[in-house]
UniProtKB/TrEMBL annotation:
Taxon lineage: Bacteria, Bacillati, Actinomycetota, Actinomycetes, Pseudonocardiales
List of residues binding acetyl-CoA: 82-84, 90-95, 118-119
Similarity remark: Belongs to the acetyltransferase Eis family.
Quaternary structure note: Homohexamer; trimer of dimers.
Keyword Acyltransferase in record: yes
HAMAP family in the record: Eis (MF_01812)
Pfam families the UniProt entry points to: Acetyltransf_17, Acetyltransf_9, SCP2_2
Record-annotated active site: 123, 402
Stored InterPro entries: Acetyltransf_17, Acetyltransferase_Eis, Acyl_CoA_acyltransferase, Eis_dom, GNAT_dom, NAcTrfase_Eis, SCP2_sterol-bd_dom_sf
Species whose genome carries this gene: Saccharothrix hoggarensis
Name used for this protein in its record: GNAT family N-acetyltransferase
Gene3D superfamilies xrefs: 3.40.630.30, SCP2 sterol-binding domain
Keywords, comma-separated and alphabetical: Acyltransferase, Transferase
CDD domains in alphabetical order: NAT_SF
Length: 402
C-alpha cells in the first residue's frame, strides 16, 4: 500500500472514495454550489492506494486560523475527509495515513491540528483530545419571557430581517470579527462563503437572517434561522461580537410570531441565556457534546503561542504514544506570556498529548482529568496551579463545521 499526496486531477477519485468510506453517495452538483468539497485543498490531501492502484482511503486538511486564549490568532490544520473503505478497515490503513499526515504537517512547520470527530473512540489514539463543547438549547415560546436585568444592560441598536441571498458580505464580515475574539473559533476563508461550502449559513441554502446593528448602524451580530413544520424555529447559529447584540437577537427569535418553540443549535455550555429567562428551567439542554478536537504537534510552540491568565511554573511530562515520543518541559508563565523549554527536573504533572490538547484552549480543567485518572500528579498543589494557569476568561467555543 502507498500513501501519496493528491493533485487537482485526483479530485473525483478523492470525493468518490471518501463518500464510499462513509457509505454515502456524492450529491449532485447544483448551480448554487454548497457542496462541502467546493473548498477542499487538494494539495493538502492524502490518498491510500493498493499495489494495483485502487484507492482505499483518504485524509485531508484545510488551512484555518484558530483563536487561542489571549486573542491570539494562529494557523491550524483542519483535518477532514478521513475514511477507509469497509473492505480495508482494521488493516493499518488509517494509522498509516494519520502518521503520514502528522509527519507532513510538522515538516511544513505547523504546530497545531484540529478536527471534528465522527466517532469519539477513534482520534484519541492519534493524539487528539476534545477541547471545545457545544449544546442545543430549546425554549418553548410560552416560557420565553425574559427576566428584568438587575444590573441593567445595553438596549441600543436594532434588528433587521434579511434573506440569506442578500447578506453574504455582512455574514462574512461579522463572523470574522467574532471569531478573532472568541477562543476556540476557526476562520471561515472567503472561498467557503463564495462557494457555499458548508452548512447554513455558509451554504447558500435559503434562510431568514436577523442582523443586529449597533447604535452607529454597524452590523455586530446575526442569527440564521428557518421555521419548519410544527412551528419550530431552528437557529443554525447566533454570532455576536458582544453580549448585548446576542441578547437582542435572542429576544427577537424568542418573540417570533406563529412559533411554538425555538431551538438554538450551538450554544456554549456557559452561555448566560438560560439565566436571562424569567424561568430558568425554560431552557431545555440537549445534544451536550464535544466539537473541536485539538492535537499539539510542537508542544513548546503551542504553549508559548497562547495567552495566560496567571503566573506560575510547572514541569510537564508529555507522552505521545502514537509518534513514539516522550518529553519533559518546564513551563514558566509571567505577565500572560509563557516560556517552555526542555528540562530534566522532576515532573509536576504527566500528560498524554491528547489530554494536553483537551486543556489547551481552557475548556477542560487539568484537575478534571486528574480526577478521571488521565493525568498523574507528582507534586501536591500542581493540579490547582495548572487549573489557574490554563483557565480562560471566556470559555472556548467553535461554530464552524468542516
Amino acid at each position: 500500500m502507498e500513501i501519496r499526496s493528491t493533485t487537482d486531477q485526483d479530485l473525483d477519485v478523492f470525493v468518490d472514495t471518501v463518500h464510499a468510506a462513509f457509505g454515502r453517495l456524492p450529491e449532485t452538483p447544483t448551480e448554487a454550489g454548497g457542496l462541502w468539497w467546493s473548498a477542499i485543498e487538494m494539495e493538502r490531501n492524502l490518498l491510500a492506494v493498493t499495489a494495483d492502484g485502487r484507492p482505499v482511503g483518504t485524509a485531508g486538511a484545510y488551512s484555518f486560523e484558530l483563536t487561542l486564549p489571549g486573542d491570539v490568532v494562529v494557523p491550524a490544520a483542519g483535518v477532514t475527509a478521513v475514511g477507509v473503505l469497509p473492505t480495508h478497515r482494521r488493516q493499518g490503513v488509517l494509522s498509516a495515513m494519520m502518521r503520514r499526515q502528522l509527519t507532513d504537517l510538522r515538516a511544513a512547520g505547523e504546530f497545531l491540528s484540529v478536527l471534528l470527530a465522527t466517532e469519539a473512540l477513534i482520534y484519541r489514539r492519534f493524539g487528539y483530545g476534545p477541547a471545545t463543547y457545544t449544546r442545543r438549547l430549546t425554549v418553548q415560546r410560552h416560557q420565553a419571557a425574559f427576566a428584568v436585568p438587575r444590573a441593567g444592560g445595553d438596549t441600543t441598536g436594532s434588528v433587521e430581517l434579511l434573506r440569506r441571498a442578500d447578506c453574504g458580505e455582512i455574514l462574512e464580515e461579522v463572523y470574522d470579527r467574532y471569531r478573532r475574539a472568541q477562543p476556540g473559533a476557526l476562520s471561515r476563508p472567503h472561498r467557503w462563503w463564495a462557494s457555499g461550502a458548508g452548512q447554513p449559513p455558509v451554504a447558500s441554502t435559503p434562510r431568514h437572517v436577523a442582523v443586529h446593528r449597533a447604535a452607529d448602524g454597524v452590523p455586530n451580530g446575526y442569527a440564521s434561522y428557518s421555521i419548519g413544520d410544527g412551528g419550530t424555529l431552528t437557529v443554525d447559529e447566533t454570532v455576536a461580537t458582544d453580549d448585548a447584540a446576542f441578547t437582542a437577537l435572542a429576544r427577537f427569535l424568542l418573540g417570533h410570531d406563529l412559533v411554538g418553540r425555538v431551538v438554538f443549535k450551538h450554544v456554549p455550555p456557559d452561555h448566560p441565556l438560560r439565566w436571562q429567562l424569567a424561568d430558568f428551567r425554560a431552557g431545555e439542554v440537549g445534544d451536550d457534546t464535544d466539537w473541536l478536537w485539538v492535537r499539539l504537534l510542537d508542544v513548546p510552540r503551542a504553549l508559548t503561542a497562547r495567552g495566560w491568565s496567571a503566573d506560575g511554573e510547572l514541569v510537564l511530562d508529555v507522552e505521545d504514544p502514537f509518534l513514539g515520543e516522550s518529553d519533559r518541559y518546564l513551563l514558566t508563565v509571567r505577565d500572560g506570556t509563557a516560556g517552555c523549554v526542555a528540562t530534566d527536573r522532576e515532573p509536576d504533572l504527566s500528560f498524554d498529548v491528547s489530554d494536553l490538547g483537551s486543556v489547551y484552549l481552557g475548556g477542560t480543567t487539568p484537575s478534571a482529568l486528574v480526577r478521571a485518572g488521565h493525568v498523574r500528579v507528582h507534586r501536591p498543589g500542581a493540579a490547582a496551579l495548572a487549573d489557574a494557569l490554563f483557565r480562560t476568561e471566556r470559555s472556548p467555543h467553535c461554530l464552524h463545521w468542516f
